[in-house]
Queue: 4 jobs
Job 1
Amino acid sequence: MLTYHLVPADEYHATMPTYTPAAFAVEGFIHTTKTLSNVHVVANRYYQADSRPYLLLTIDLERIAAPWRYDAAGEEYPHLYGPLEQMAVVKVQQCPRAADGTFLPIPIAD
């Protein structure tokens, strides 16, 4: 199963064996979004004021060692309870933005 994680481009280093966002120390998990078509909604809700370029990590949950779960029934947001191994990241792409900083929908490949 695939899930998606937004990260400022300057905070993600694909050469490191694992990735752990700064917020992990406080929250204890890594936020992800189950549905690609919902990523820009989440990005605009939480990150629109941050003008840095953002990346979208596509994560294969079957490749991670850390436990993950939905913290409420029917949720769209799986949480990863440990570092993200690079081998679970199957794609990295830029998040498109409009000139005013609004995140745009992620193109869905055929």
Job 2
Amino acid sequence: MSFVVLFWYWFALTGVLLIFELFAPGVIFIFLAAGTLTSGIALWVAPGLGLELQFLVFAVVAAVAYYFGRPFTRQLSHRKVDHLNVRGESLIGMVTNLTEPIINGRGRLRVGDTTWAVAGPDMAAGFAVRVVGIHGAELKVEPQR
């Protein structure tokens, strides 16, 4: 009894590799998935294709996909991000009320559905404050006059 590879085995392996791609950092499994998909299609079109030829199709297509696709994916992953905290910067100038008091220079306020850590002069909860800056994930506030 010999092992026979059916075309849907290659398609199933393609699905598994695509799932791996979703959870893996970087981009690598997509090139292997291109090879397995092509091998599955080749076996579907030519059912008598030998196992050695199936693996050859897989290896060649995966290597070619990697060779031509890697520069593109590398370019996407090295894009410069000028403003890492664009959302926080958009809050500068906003006036809102403190959710929790500022004690020893630290407190919290709510903006929409997000609670932000704030730094500023000590104030009681409910005071109106203006966001004047951001440092990391902490908003700098001052009393609204």
Job 3
Amino acid sequence: MNATPTQSSLSDSQRAALAARLRRGRDAAPGAIPRRAPGRSELPLSFAQEQLWFIDQFHNLPTYNIPGLLRLRGPLDAAALGRAIDQLIARHETLRTRLVANTDGRPIQLIDAAGASELAQLDLSAVPGDQVEQRLREFAVEQALQPFDLAAGPLFRRTLIRLSATEHALLIVLHHTIFDGWSFGVLLRELAACYTEQVTGVPAGLAELPVQYADYALWEQDRLSGPELAELAEYWKANLDGLETVQLPTDRPRPIAADHSGGIEHGHFGSTLLQGLRELAKQQGTTPFVVLMATLQALL
């Protein structure tokens, strides 16, 4: 079953319209996103945030929690680390954003004021050496599986864990409505720069952010609205019409209500296969992720 129309299935006019739309998207990319007017009271969610908020109304589960554990070795100034995290939160509005329903029941973003916060700490230095890693993993899993309240917030939890005098771990857990896996690299680089500033007094030298995520959400909602949104919606309705749900054979009955309990299967891609996937993606003008998704679709 092919759930997505291929290029060859499009008429000449459809291909031309699709190419024009892609060019518009490329030409209007990040540099064209304007800063919002100061004092705007209601900020919409991005479409991605709307999806996650909608799911959360039915199932307040930790499915979309994103945890990360950073190991820190050497002398550590815990107070300076706490100030560095506050500096990072002040810099990125999304790290102090909550998702609430307005008087009409529509979800909006609320950005809390920046300020000092307390860095939670846990001391495991007295735990016997052969049990420390187990206790650390148990605590990390416990925090990762604790759901967020999208309206109450905050959607960013952090705990500094002392393992010994010269070894610590920083556990962070964020909700996917304000963060994604790619953002970890940005967060760690900027946190290191802010920590160095707090310890040495030398400015981190981070460039001012041209836009914040709420600016992007406004731009996206404005760009994909009215006739443009209706055209896209009609295109996919027409092309996906009549497709049936894939019924996968399972080794046990599926529950009436999904409990979102899953597992992870690990496999190894050899260098030859991985290089082949990358080359195929390059030839098709897409990413390895899209190639793998297309492969899964073909399999299903």
Job 4
Amino acid sequence: MLKKIVFIVLWISVVSCDTRSVEEKIDNLNGYWTISKVETNEGKTKEYSFSSTVDYFEITNNKGFRKKVQPKLDGTYVVTDDVENIVVKVENDSINLYYSTEMDQWKETLIASEANKITFLNEYGNKYTYERFTGYLNETHGEKEQ
């Protein structure tokens, strides 16, 4: 019982210390991201050191999209035709992303949003952590427009 109380107090302290606005957390999503880790609801963790595809997010006024792109060594990207439309909603103090494609719909909750790291929790309890993609050869081409 004491452990639960301590955990709850610590969790409230951490959450209440986050002074970044909802808008800033959502704005952090914009840009190129590479998956770094997946933690399943069963407690298994898979870490990624390299991925040939990168997720590109573009969100304005709580609407936008996510696309898979393949970075090239020259700093350009091969862009697929696939797109996942996104609607962002703030619900019960959570930032939820509602995705839709022609074939499916799903929801993820943004549980961490920093300039260089984001984490989502999906409907099945799996956590996906991404790091900002800065390119294969230099530290700036990850910021270029598509």
